[in-house]
Design a protein that fits this description.
Chain lengths: ~350, ~350, ~350, ~350
């Protein structure tokens, strides 16, 4: 059994890790930390876990974490970068679900996250863990930066187009929408049911922290700078991201081979499902599942490629992808613990 | 008192007309028709109207409708085009909330609506009733084609940009999202709560009936053909449309004057509210109200203008705009019966 | 014009008061206070009010409030009892939407609200403002304690049964359900969309602050002590309360006259609607409206009277009833400003 | 591998069976029937199952079903009673998720379901499959009538009280609330998102088909007739039932031992969780899981026992309990395929 620790377990990604790991046959969760809730049994905070875990939240303790094979960070930004170096020295492997190690340009990081980065060394060494792009590097990594939720949905949908150089990289638009769990589990007035329910809005339209992460990833796929406009929106639901992507085809004749291109690109990917041309993926078709489903569209008289891409922000957009990365890192079957279909309806 | 008839009153736009007209001081609703529910009191179907109306649904009868000053059609497409000519001859004025008279190119209409148009004469004479564009023509019109819900939100947001020729008219993108009431009140499995709730998806991404209507309106504003990509989405809520619009500024320096331009363009419009630059309009801020609120955004290093525009699809996107048109047609105060603030939360 | 002040305007009852008063023809809101948001325009916090109010929140100032004809308190408990005495001395009339003056037994009050009452004199003089019971006293009152949301729905439904002594007063059960806006607008984790959405639960099942208020009101109607079990539940929606009430008929033969009894009891009440026997009132039929709708049911082989009673917790359960009380106090038409039908769908 | 057939697979219980069985290690689904959708791949209708099943819906064919080890009926009432006798003759075992074999009194059945029962012989032999009551009979049964959703939540909560004779059996009240998936997946206007969303109501308050089933089960537990009032309500969410149960304790002193009694009664039950006294079970704590969670409450000065009981109507209230019954019938571990924690949030 692989011994796993979780730092920052009271948020939605924390409980989602516990939910997934509860049925993972090769994992034993040996500690889960929370400064604010130390001592409280996890099943008291999350009654869906009653009968599954006897653990209580504990104060984060590097000695205890250092005895784990792998530690997940499910913390706000700024925490992992301070604790990771010591764990690295102890030989522990880490999957960081926070944003601390996602950006390679630390000036950009500092600018968006409002603090200086405290572990430039590991920021450089960290592997940005999108398995569909860098599976082999993940296998060997000691530190994996788990991608953000929006960046996962957006990158996967644009990837085949950019890798093949079929679209104008300067004119990418990603109109993305997320359920409320993406904002985490803090008592913010703006995230109350009375504020979020029965309403829809854009937010961060003038700039969102996931924009530089998306830009970095797409530039990598494109082999050069990209111009991408990214607008997130808040959906009155709990789980799910849909990203509608727009790109301008350099040669309209390429439309005919796009579907085949996408299907080939992801043919061996267990967690990316290219649906038939003209399909409309629903977020519920991936609820609770580590899946990205996508479909292509074209409107008459248009050379705009439209891609609709959906994930569950807490699974393929966070905890599920983290477990996928862990499976890769430890040589387990990549789908282990991640086989269950989505919960629909 | 102006005598009003409503044809097709059992759907959501029908009940919304009744809700609004219940407090309109100059209107008396003298008949409301429904083939399927003839004889049923409207307050039995819509208990929110108990105490407000003694009317029952009746069979549509041109003699009765012909005695009205104005008739609203809240019918599926294909109904109004058959009944309108006779009402026109009887001197009745009509606001048609259906799609029958919105498009000027009847080949396009036939193509999207799957039938030949049966009243080409009145399709030509009909005024497309977006008051912010053609108020004077509405005043004099006998037949007003009330705009669609998406087209209202999209056109209002793009108007200032296109009228001033500031953006590339060939590269317009409208990513629009609507609550479920936009699909009407028919027993379709796809619109069940169990299907719509807690899920989000694009639909009609390869082509939607509102696309030609949007294209017609934007071409008018632009003074020439436009290239517009329009993707609608279904939000798990009841009322509200948010459209996020993307356009490429010809001259990035123009960014500095966009806010003032929008404010001036709509300064005298009682039902268009330009919020401060960088705001995020919420659909709930217009729920139940005949308002369009919009705001502008810019992302760093980008010459894409982003406009977020929200309306209540049943009000400014249907029944409210119809009453606004009626007020204009009869020389009433344009805001009469439409003064109440939105219901928030 | 009647000059109105509102203390504590940032919560949901505050904005609801503003929404209703925006179309009230005899009212001018002259000040609205908030310690935390002093200086912020109300329309910045509540964009549905843009164009309706130029007011900004101000620090509470007894001098300013003392110049009003009427002051609404939309504050947490414990605030009104401290400020009311001074306003009373200044001759201002007050409708307190908080719980401060609802209970006559101040030991009970202290027990449930966790503090000693600081204005026993005015607690005694205050009129518990359920117009359907004590309209004449409200007319003459200087201080009205506006009833709680649950107590309004529960009392109205039980009233005719208890006033006529038809049911066993020792065996009353009120199973009540409320939307999330009833919990107010504070940043509590338990009220996040991610916690409330797509879930349902009882809360306060072992005892809730509205229980003594219900007991007091029902005892008054019954002319003696009552035994009532009250369990509130949280519905994943924003507005609306449904209370299903169970009472044991002393004489089953009385079933035949219950419908007539209820209809007569509320025949002259503008805001209570007794629906036909066997109807199922929906909360949406009163959304945004100052209405209580109710209906009676009987199951075969049973002498249990079932009453289903619905209100909008923010309207007939709070701000609407407060305006109704104000109308009565100032000799206005009781329905003034409260005529609009509910928002459905 | 046990070969399983499903009759009537297009509804919500059908897809839920498929979701659960997809990860069941001992089961192979060999056919799934649908008259209306014959030929359509199940994964086209339910995209969450893409990659999990290659099956298409087929016409129901007794020869094919007769080759299965077990057949689930997920059909409307009236179907199973016609097909079951032939399957019984073929030696197939059946779990019927419909209401056909739940009631022992066929006059009562005929009265509530509006048709004569066509298989009295098997109605008598069928085992009413509530494992917590008749596990041994289920083990040996050829035909199991899977309990209804409401009856499961209500019976489990009342069981310990009635079995021990602690409460007045003539005065039971069950106020139950369900998400919309309980109404199935048919295109009924009343179940549209626009009708169900943001609203709450009682329904069937004068009598519901689950009432006689509840009465039969509780009478069995009580050892004599019971008087039970049962009112169902519709919650604006998809999955979940909460039942708040009220019973009058014969001897108030018994309150002290109720918690222990409940805990002992269900100590060996893998799918019933008695939470600490005074807890408030949330439906989300069992979403997607085959669990019933319950808690006890008492209000001061009261001898009413309050039990709050929650299940997922599609799992412990339908497909999950059906799989649990199947596991018992085939001597598998009772929890096999049912181990995953609920999806929260």
């Amino acid at each position: 059994m692989i011994k796993v620790g979780i730092v920052g377990g009271t948020g939605y990604t924390g409980v989602e890790l516990l939910r997934i790991l509860a049925v993972h046959p090769e994992i034993s969760v040996s500690c889960i930390t929370s400064r604010s809730e130390a001592g409280m049994p996890v099943a008291d905070m999350y009654p869906n876990l009653r009968g599954h875990y006897d653990l209580a939240f504990s104060e984060p303790d590097v000695a205890v974490l250092g005895a784990c094979d792998l530690v997940f960070f499910a913390t706000p930004h700024g925490v992992a970068m301070r604790m990771v170096p010591e764990l690295m020295s102890a030989g522990v492997r880490v999957v960081d679900l926070s944003a601390d190690f996602r950006l390679k340009d630390l000036d950009v990081w500092a600018n968006w996250y409002g603090m200086a980065h405290e572990s430039p060394e590991w920021a450089e060494k960290a592997v940005y863990g999108l398995p569909e792009v860098v599976r082999d590097e993940i296998r060997a990594a000691q530190l994996v930066a788990n991608p953000g939720c929006y960046p996962t949905a957006v990158q996967l949908g644009f990837l085949p187009l950019l890798e093949q150089g079929l679209v104008d990289p300067a004119r990418l638009i990603a109109d993305a929408k997320s359920g409320a769990s993406g904002a985490g589990r803090q008592g913010k007035i703006g995230m109350l049911h009375g504020e979020v329910g029965e309403s829809f809005k854009a937010y961060g339209a003038s700039g969102h922290r996931h924009l530089p992460e998306i830009r970095q990833g797409l530039s990598g796929a494109s082999g050069g700078d990209v111009g991408v406009t990214f607008v997130p929106h808040l959906i009155p639901m709990i789980r799910g991201i849909e990203a509608t992507l727009y790109a301008e085809l350099k040669n309209p004749a390429d439309f005919d081979r796009l579907q085949a291109l996408f299907e080939e690109r992801f043919a061996d990917e267990p967690f990316v499902d290219v649906m038939p041309f003209g399909s409309h993926p629903e977020t519920r078709s991936v609820r609770g599942a580590n899946q990205c489903r996508m479909a292509l569209h074209r409107q008459e008289q248009s050379n705009i490629v439209i891609v609709s891409s959906v994930i569950d922000n807490l699974v393929k957009g966070a905890a599920g992808q983290a477990v996928q990365n862990m499976n890769i890192m430890f040589g387990l079957k990549e789908t282990m613990g991640l086989e269950a279909p989505a919960l629909l309806p």
